Amino acid sequence: MKIKKSIERVPGGLMVIPLMLGALLNTIDQLHIPFIMNILKSLGVSPAQEGIYEFMRIGGFSEALFKNGTLTLIGLFLFCAGSQMNLRVGGKALKKGILLTSSKCLTGILIGILFGIFFDPMNGLLGLSTVAIIAAMTNGNEGMYAVLTGQYGNRSDVGAISVLTLNDGPFFTMLALGMVGSHFPLIAFIAVLLPIALGMLLGNLDEDIREFLKPGETLLVPFFAFCLGAGMNFMSFFNPEAVWGGLALGFATVILSAITGILVYRLFGERSTIGPVAEASTAGNAVGTPAAIAAAAAVSAGAGLMTLEEAKAFQDIANLATIQISISTITTSILCPIAVILWDKYQRSKGIDGTIEDISKKIIVQPEMKQNA
């Protein structure tokens, strides 16, 4: 049975399918069907509340992994992702990585802040929030970037991924929210960054550790996606705000990230601009950002830097933002490769081959020797 291959045929399938499966099972669970509850009661399951039995709350390892493991699994994912952040990159790759990371992050943050100014930052146009916009637009699908630049780009384009991995996780979203007045204490930033920093330290100290932790970047995604879904109602995926907001987010990510990145590349003298278009996507791991932000908000409320109402507002939008980011992931997984193919054709029509490394060479002109008569 080619289950994995079937799942991977769906854009972002390793994240989307487990997320929707978790939501479907949780939806059935929350219906509290008497037949199912009677079976659970006969098996000795402890009631979730008086007279209510849920198969996703049976205790033990099962509940810890499939229902309550979201933050633990996301933290472990960030640790593994941090280990892949290679500080030893070539000069050209480093330059491109910095340009791409800066342009993508600043674009997402700027759009998110402007959205919060003109609309409700928690539930504005199409149900979008500042959290959803920044999380989706600042975090690119590095796996797809590697594949696209490997085919249409050059060696330094591919090497830039070492810097692009800095986008992984909720740090830039939290930083932007702090810029617009949400008060996160220093400990909240440390709590988010510590797994990434430790993974980054170990990965750069020992190449074997980096290779050992590399599978965690993909292995953990379906697990934390399922846990996120286990806290949702499946019918939320048919909410018009979730669908249209997610689609709008996907199109905005591809178009605006690509345009900004191309302009920045041109400003800094790069001829081929395949990299910015290949990075114009939303990563599947971005779906964990709203939950991480909600957790950080709870820490802030406990520290007295945020009211309970403000913290609850972040918790209330987490599910909708997660679904919108999921839809954006699917949308950009389709649009981004198409954009790269079209942009590559356009570049070639202008005499630019993105697969050829653009290395400036000094041409030394020898003065002509005077011939003696």
Provide an overview of this structure.
The chain has a domain at 86-216 and 232-349: Na+/H+ antiporter like fold (Up-down Bundle), CATH 1.20.1530. The chain is 67% helix and 0% strand. With 373 residues, it is mainly alpha-helical. The longest helix is centred in the last third of the chain and has 42 residues, at 308-349.
Distinctive features:
single chain; 373 residues; mainly alpha; Na+/H+ antiporter like fold; 19 helices; 0% strand; globular; disordered C terminus
Fold topology:
Elements lengths: L2 H6 L4 H18 L3 H9 L17 H7 L3 H14 L7 H28 L11 H9 L3 H11 L2 H5 L1 H4 L6 H9 L6 H20 L1 H7 L2 H4 L1 H9 L10 H28 L6 H5 L10 H14 L5 H42 L24
Number of helices: 19
Q: How much helix, percentage-wise, in residues?
A: 55-70%
> What fraction of the residues are assigned to beta strands by DSSP?
under 5%
Q: If you consult CATH, what is the topology of the domain at 86-216 and 232-349? A: Na+/H+ antiporter like fold
Name the poorly predicted regions.
Answer: 361-373
Beta-strand segment tally: 0
Give average pLDDT, whole number.
Answer: 84
Question: Which class best fits the helix and strand makeup?
Answer: mainly alpha
Give the terminus-to-terminus CA distance: 86 Å
Briefly summarize what is shown.
By secondary structure, the protein is mostly helical. Helices cover 67% and strands 0% of the residues.
